[in-house]
Amino acid sequence: MTTSPALQSVEDVLSSAGVNPETGLTSAEAAARLASHGSNELRSQPREPAWRRFLRQFADPLVYLLFGAMAISLGAWFLEGTHGVPIDVVVILLIVLANAILGFVQENRAADAVAALADMTAARATVLRDGRLVTVAAAELVPGDILVLGEGDAVAADARLLSASSLQVQEASLTGESEAVTKSVAPLSELGSLGDRHNMVFKGTAVARGVGRAVVTETGMDTQMGHIATLLD
Fold it and tell me: What are the angstrom distances between the C-alpha of 180 and each of 121, 176, 201?
């Protein structure tokens, strides 16, 4: 069984990660690990098919009333001998279809706008690569990356701290604790709850104050946040 990074010394964690803390990963090694481990993203539910979203536009009490009016008009047309075109039925059908098409288009536009906003505000992270600090998309983080943390930063992956100076992390999104947790580097003697792992930082949390550096240990669905997402599926 693999020993948790929280129980290991900094030296052992770095050795397991295969990274030099002074230079970080090379761009080539980061690319290879990204191909091997996959994107540092949580899997989302597949988007609802277009045909189902269109049919959902008819799931409205007012539409049901219009369908009822159509049925009554169509019945009256039959009783009268089906002479001519049932104008009332055609008009109501056109109204229902126009309403469904309009709702479908507006829903698609809203979804596209949200997706565009998400792209614009996509989390980014500062890492040490090729011996220099660079900012990359959080989705591109890989195990072994040296993550540089500062006040206000979102923690983009699970990572073992290498250094910490007055570092406090807000972990309410993960543990429910309202108070920021003070972090340190020393290895744990035993693996407690997430809130007690003072030498780890986790994806989905945020730096409240201080600075630190950490080596990424887990990304994507392998993070603690990913485990929660799996349970909620």
Answer: 24, 11, 12
Q: Which residues is 211 bridged to in the sheet?
A: 165
Question: Closest by alpha carbon to 160, among 108, 199, 116, 130?
Answer: 199
Collapse the DSSP code of 201 into the 3-class scheme (helix H, G, I; strand E, B; otherwise coil) and give the result.
strand
Helix axes of 87-120 and 61-79: crossing angle, nearest 10 degrees: 160
Whole-prediction pTM value?
0.70
Task: State residue 25 phi and psi, 5-degree precision.
Answer: -75, 155
Q: Residue ranges of the alpha helices (H) in the chain?
A: 10-17, 27-37, 50-56, 61-79, 87-120, 172-175, 224-232
Q: How far is CA 2 from the centre of its chain?
A: 27
Per-run averaged pLDDT (10 residues), the chain, 233 residues? 86 94 95 94 75 88 89 86 82 91 88 59 84 94 96 93 96 87 94 91 94 96 85 63
